[in-house]
Write a structure and sequence with these properties.
Layout lengths: L3 H15 E4 L3 E7 L2 E6 L2 E4 L5 E8 L3 E10 L5 E12 L4 H9 L4 H20 L4 H4 L3 H18 L2 E13 L1 H80 L5 H18 L11 H25 L1
Antiparallel strand pairs: 1-4, 2-3, 2-5, 6-7, 7-8
Helix pairs in contact: 3-5, 7-8
């Protein structure tokens, strides 16, 4: 009886059963009679056929999971979180792979535990904060959860790569009230800014007006000083001219009242030319003129007497 044809298929089947292919990015854990045997790495591997079994294939690539859950603040406000968790197997050492393979019955149990751990960490942190503080504590919440979750994952053979809290929302009623608060604060800030702007405008306007009044007053004072100097110089020149003319007329034995009469006529002429419509009442009668001339002569005699006294 020829057993060659019988054994060849058996040998081929045994060889096929002893070959194991492990994909890149994964490792395979084998057991013999339910006990851990070894870890097979990517590529073609050999195993003991019919005895050594593939217990689990484990991915050593990065994994990402999105978690959505709810927490309650210390002032009883519901906060809804959406977070993204990025993790991976810590390394490919045998002890690490054994933890990953045998810590949990299935990947479903592992993901449930991971989700509850993250959720519990965030809930514990949020429970100590008020609603108004939550939005400003995104980074602090992330850091607090990372510390707790990373320590837990190390016991399971994993390590945390990143944790991001993408969305933080409140109940619709809370969101409406927060929007009203923000709107009222914006209106308050706008009113305060408008008031400050109006105050600054009025202050600057008052300062400008005060400076304008000050400048105008200084200009008027300077103009008055210059007018006074001009009038003083004019009077001085008139007095000097009258004194000289009177002296010359006395030396020529002429009546000095002619000078006064000339001054009277020049004054009337000046009033007429430069009066600008103003009304000036003068007594144009002979008696009025004589009275004015007498007053001018008396003034002239007083000036002459003063000049002689000074001499």
């Amino acid at each position: 009886m020829d057993f060659t044809g019988f054994f060849i298929p058996i040998v081929i089947a045994v060889l096929l059963l002893s070959l194991v292919t492990v994909r890149q990015g994964t490792v395979a854990v084998t057991t013999i009679f339910g006990k851990y045997q070894r870890t097979l790495h990517p590529g073609l591997n050999f195993r003991v056929p019919l005895i050594e079994a593939i217990f689990k294939r484990i991915s050593i690539q990065n994994r990402a999971v999105e978690l959505t859950f709810q927490a309650v603040t210390i002032d009883q406000a519901n906060v809804h979180f959406t977070s993204l968790l990025l993790f991976a197997v810590m390394d490919n050492r045998e002890e690490t792979i054994k933890k990953v393979a045998f810590k949990f019955v299935s990947d479903r149990d592992f993901m449930a535990s991971l989700s509850r751990t993250v959720e519990g960490s965030i809930r514990a942190y949020v429970a100590t904060k008020r609603q108004a503080e939550i939005l400003g504590l995104r980074r602090e919440i992330t850091e607090a959860v990372k510390t707790n979750v990373d320590h837990m994952l190390e016991d399971w053979g994993f390590h945390l790569l990143d944790l991001q809290i993408n969305d933080i929302t409140f109940d619709e009623e809370v969101m409406r009230s927060m929007s009203k608060v923000v709107a009222s604060n914006n209106l308050k800030a706008a009113a305060e800014n408008e008031g400050q702007a109006l105050l600054i405008t009025k202050t600057k306007s008052a300062e400008a007006e005060g400076n304008a009044i000050k400048i105008a007053a200084e200009a008027e004072r300077e103009a008055a000083r210059m007018r006074g100097q001009a009038v003083a110089l004019f009077r001085e020149e008139v007095a000097r001219g009258m004194s000289q003319a009177a002296k010359e007329m006395r030396e020529a034995h002429l009546d000095t009242s002619v000078i006064l009469f000339s001054m009277w006529t020049e004054a009337v002429k000046n009033f007429t030319e430069h009066g600008k419509g103003n009304v000036i009442f003068l007594d144009g009668s002979v008696d009025g003129m004589q009275k004015t001339l007498k007053d001018l002569m008396a003034l002239n005699q007083l000036q002459v007497f003063g000049s002689g006294k000074q001499a």
